[in-house]
Amino acid sequence: MDKIQKLALGSIFIGAVVFGLKYAAYYITGSIALYSDALESVINVVTAVAAFLAVRVSAAPADANHPYGHHKVEYFSAVLEGVLIIVAALAILRESYYGFLSPKMIDAPMEGLAINAIAGVINAFWSWVLINRGRRMRSPALVADGRHLFTDVMTSAGVLIGLLLVPFTGWHWLDSALAALVAVNILWSGWGLMKESIGGLMDEALPETTLSRVREIIAVNAQGAIEAHDLRTRHAGRMTFIDFHLVVPGQMSVTDAHDICDRLERALKEDVKDALITIHVEPDNKAKHAGIVVL
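The line above is the sequence of Protein p34; the predicted structure tokens follow.
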């Protein structure tokens, strides 16, 4: 089991602990806002399981049916997480609506809020771990899970601050209003998650800053060639796919052309982690006099 899988497995455990604490806070107080917070934690557990399964499958080596590997499965996990977030938000909106119709007094608010605060601190720490490690290891599933947890942290903080005002103001409707705000925030988070994951499934190109760096590396390390054109890039989970055409002098030997390709692959892989590079070598009569000029 690699580090990514261990982190994903840890998310399941953390999610279960946080859900237990948040449900206890809701049980003590009867607050709809705390119920909404606990419900989101159920989604955290489900999506943590999905993320674990996704990174486990994505780590499998390429096979005859999947010659490019299984990396894209992590995007499916992130899309599923977005869908579940939206379902949770709709359920919370339903509860907040009924809460508006018949508001009630919150019981033992301070004890419940203290328990919920502890859960929030745990979530904040684990969110930071997932986002930082996920970016370092280039795992969309871990980053998506971390961002979802961070959204949970922010909404939990808002709920705590709002509920602290209820005993002092006597505004019992504030409990339902906070639950509705939590739901809207969760909906926005779910939409952002799905949009980003669908971009990965649709083979979006690398960001422009990374593309510029790739072009620069090719230009500097392709000595002996004439030009490079038709550069194409895409992400698939942790993998980055780079392919382009390399134009060389027509009289150049296969060995010399292969040496240039090897040099380019080494340079690109030093800068772009987990890169899979395909270079199509062409003779000089195929030059387009466009694309990347070799320095």
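Note on the example: DSSP finds eight helices and four strands in the chain. The chain has a mean pLDDT of 81.
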